Amino acid sequence: MALMVVTFTGAATAGELRATVRNVKPNQGKVMVALFDSAEAEKAKTPRAGYFAAALGTELQVVFPDLPAGRYGLIAFQDLDNNGELATGLFGIPAEPHGFSRSARGSFGPPSFDDYAVAVGAAGVATTEIRLVE
């Protein structure tokens, strides 16, 4: 299990978001996780932070410290072909394992930001799970 800490220069009182990424295919490519602070940031594809790690085991832990209070969403995928992009098939359907915080799933498309957003307080730790699915 890998643990990655992404640091920010933040306010004196800040929260932390921890995620467990599950269903990783071991020894196949990398796992990429993007942290978004709004639906607009997700739509513009401008994450607040990102995380990349070799897919060594079936799960990994990601920690985003020093976050101002707010709502944050995580989108993850396992880059099996190591090209740095989520492979898609017919109609743009993801062809590589992918998932969202709160293990949210959409119907006929990705879930909305509200469906996968996690509240992070000014202090303390918020936790979530991301289940990768194909």
The helix-and-strand class reads mainly beta
Instruction: Quote the average pLDDT.
Output: 91
Q: Biggest β-sheet, characterized?
A: 5 strands, antiparallel
* Cα distance spanning the termini: 21 Å
Report the β-strand fraction as a percent range.
35-45%
For the record, the count of structural domains works out to 1
Count helical runs.
2
Percent helix, as a range, is under 10%
Organism: Azospirillum endophyticum
InterPro entries: DUF2141 (IPR018673)
Pfam families: DUF2141 (PF09912)
Protein name: DUF2141 domain-containing protein
Précis, in short:
The chain is mainly β and 134 residues long.
Account of the protein in words:
7% of the residues lie in helices and 42% in strands. The chain is mainly beta. It has helices at 39-44, 113-116, and strands at residues 3-5, 15-22, 30-36, 49-54, 60-67, 70-79, 98-100, 118-120, 124-131. It has one domain. Residues 7-11 have low confidence and may be disordered. The strands form 2 sheets. Strands 3, 4, 6, 7 and 8 form a 5-stranded antiparallel sheet that branches. Strands 1-5-2-9 form a 4-stranded mixed sheet, with no helix packed on it. The radius of gyration is 14 Å and the shape is globular.
Main attributes?
DUF2141, 5-stranded antiparallel sheet, about 130 residues, single chain, DUF2141 domain-containing protein
Reconstruct the topology from this structure.
Blueprint: E1 3-5, E2 15-22, E3 30-36, H1 39-44, E4 49-54, E5 60-67, E6 70-79, E7 98-100, H2 113-116, E8 118-120, E9 124-131
Parallel strand pairs: 1-5, 2-9
Antiparallel strand pairs: 2-5, 3-4, 3-6, 6-7, 6-8
Organism: Azospirillum endophyticum
Protein name: DUF2141 domain-containing protein
Pfam family, one: DUF2141
